[in-house]
Amino acid sequence: MEISKPMATPALIADTTVHDFVGKSGGDPWRVFIHVPSGPMPEAGWPVLYMTDGNAVIGTAVDAMRAQAFYPAGTNVGWGVIIAIGYPVEGAYDPLRRSWDLGPPPGRTYPPFHEGTPEVRTGGAGDFLAFIEAELKPWVATRTRIDESRQALYGHSFGGLFALYALFTRPLSFNTFIAASPAIYWEDRVIDRFLERFEAAVPDGLKADVILSAGEYETEKLAPFQVGAEDEEKRLAQKKLILTDEFAKAMAERLDALPGLRASFELHAGENHMSILPVTVNRAVQAAFAVR
């Protein structure tokens, strides 16, 4: 007897749709993933989590919420809307466009990532944040009702730097900011310019949580698989420049001293700069959709 072969069908992310969104100023589209739970909407509307690098995080975020929100008494996680902003590419990232979107101004120009490709530009974070606030948020509001008092922003690496930029330049735009492995060192710590202006004029009524983090192997310590590798010395030298954990911890302490902010730093055991991604995506879900 011939055994029938199972039919292959695409594996979809539950209750999630994809939209290629061109901004009012034109240019290349962003790929926006939006997850709206299928259950009943809360009376105040849904809490919402906005995420950068959408292609890389949307599946993890949705499943982290689905796995926990069915048991809120044991997880402290409820249901919410997830908006992940990425790019129309097959891979997890578009390195060229994210460099522009997530880099604080004024930015710089760098050699191409690969021969025959465009130069790399940074400094577009202001434009990207304006798109989120003026165009994306109103569009999301046409699709479902959002609880504006419960809006969170997550970013990793350059995205973590962007989350800090958003806090310092539009502090009332979100209520929770999750900056995972933020690239605070970037471009001679350009982020400090915006921090200092923010510190000088913290808005009245500000009330926000800020979570910064780093992995155990973003410290002075190499991951076990890096010890004895050919690039060991190069990596150790780079760590002394980037100082992801030290800069993030110091930033959390500085922010926690400001009125209206509750800032903390988390060090995740056994994680490196990339493996920390799903861990911190889950932390973002926990922070954005906490029941208590």
Describe it for me?
- This is Putative hydrolase of alpha/beta superfamily.
- Keywords: Hydrolase.
- The chain is α/β, with parallel strands linked by helices and 292 residues long.
- The protein has a single domain (16-288), classed as 3-Layer(aba) Sandwich (Rossmann fold), CATH 3.40.50.
- The protein contains ten helices and ten strands.
- A hairpin with an 8-residue loop joins β1 (16-21) and β2.
- α1 crosses α10 and α5 (158-169) packs parallel to α7 (191-200).
- The model has no long low-confidence stretch (mean pLDDT 96).
What's the total number of strands? Answer: 10
Structural class: alpha/beta
The tally of domains stands at 1
Strand order within the widest beta sheet: 1-2-4-3-7-8-9-10
Give the fraction of residues assigned to helices. 25-40%
Compute the number of helices: 10
Strand content: 15-25%
Order of helices and strands: EEEHHEHEEHEHEHHEHHEH
CATH topology: Rossmann fold
Can you tell me the residue ranges where pLDDT is under 50 for at least 5 consecutive residues?
none
Q: Give average pLDDT, whole number.
A: 96
CATH class descriptor: Alpha Beta
Q: At the fourth CATH level, what is the homologous superfamily?
A: Alpha/Beta hydrolase fold, catalytic domain
Radius of gyration, whole Å: 20 Å
Distance between the termini: 58 Å
Shape: globular
| Main sheet: strands, sense, barrel | 8 strands, mixed
Q: State the CATH architecture.
A: 3-Layer(aba) Sandwich
